[in-house]
Amino acid sequence: MVRFEEVTKLYPPDITALDRVSFSVERGEFVFITGPSGAGKTTLLNLILRSELPSQGEVYVEGRPLSRLKPRHVPGLRRRIGIIFQDFKLLVDRTALENVALALEVQGLSLREGRHRALATLEAVGLKGKENKYPPQLSGGERQRVAIARAIVNRPALLLADEPTGNLDPRLAEEIIELFEELNARGTSIILATHNQSLFIERHRRVLVLDSGRLIN
Ligand code: ADP
Ligand code: ADP
Q1: What is the per-residue pLDDT for 160?
Q2: Per the database record, which ranges form the ABC transporter domain (predicted)?
Q3: What distance in angstroms lies between residue 131's CA and the mean position of ligand 1's atoms?
């Protein structure tokens, strides 16, 4: 699904965000990436999205080398990847349903079809009955569920999450991770970056550890 081959990312003049990082994530895997703040986790995710290009080495997504991807094919790559951030990035003046349905608009689905699929996705993340609420009317855990619904409504093969539980209390964080487990069980590959070890302890998932840009495990 994703392969890093000796990837180095430099930010001039003197930051080595990633230092000769190599690893693969297989289709269907659920992998955690951890390490302290500044270790390179977000940089690694941005390279998979081709928001950044490596200074050296190559990133492959579904076998394709991203440095050779033509700019006009980048949106297509990103449509195949769902992204979830710590701060949700929901549109506050749109309902939960509209936030999710908007992710489908670019696909040329009819409005009716889009609404139907968005509703089904909100239901799948446990938000049945909340579809007409605006983000400020929802709790933190509910807002993050809307963001997850938005990320998965296109049925991406790969889900990237960057500190997705960062603003949630431990119980809600646990619920969100359980939701990721369910998505993974239904076939979505997941890469979840977090500095919070309690999210993966006792989960028996592969954990990649970054320290100052180096993969140390
Ligand atoms: P993490 O997500 O693990 O906190 P980051 O990938 O955000 O780590 O950052 C890794 C290093 O790269 C840090 O030293 C950070 O300051 C630096 N960095 C990240 N993005 C940029 C950028 N766009 N320009 C310059 N330095 C950056
Ligand atoms: P564009 O579509 O213009 O290329 P980007 O993909 O660079 O936009 O992302 C827009 C914003 O979202 C930027 O501020 C970027 O740092 C942030 N961003 C993108 N991908 C991630 C990620 N995986 N984790 C954290 N922040 C991200």
Answers
A1: 97
A2: 2-216
A3: 36
Distance CA 112, CA 187 (A): 27
Give the sign of the dihedral formed by CA 33, CA 71, CA 104, CA 96. Answer: positive
pLDDT at 51: 94
> What tens digit of pLDDT does each residue of 100-118 get?
998 887 677 887 888 999 9
pLDDT of residue 130: 97
Indicate the average pLDDT of the chain: 93
In-domain check, residue 72 = yes
Instruction: Give one DSSP letter per residue of 153-185, joined into a string.
Output: TT--SEEEEESTTTTS-HHHHHHHHHHHHHHHH
CA dist., res. 199 & res. 30, Å (int): 13
Judge whether 106 lies within some domain.
no
Q: How confident is the model over 124-134, as pLDDT tens digits?
A: 889 999 999 99
- The Å distance, Cα 40 to ligand 1 centre, comes to 6
What is the Å distance from ligand 1's center to 42 Cα?
7
Domain count, the chain: 1
CATH number at residue 3: 3.40.50.300
Q: Which listed ligand is nearest to 86 at the C-alpha?
A: 2
Q: Whose CA is nearest to atom 10 of ligand 2?
A: 51
Whether 186 is covered by a domain: the verdict is no
Q: Is 207 in the pocket of ligand 2 (CB under 6 A)?
A: no
- 28 within some domain: yes
Ligand 1 centroid–CA 127 distance in Å is: 34
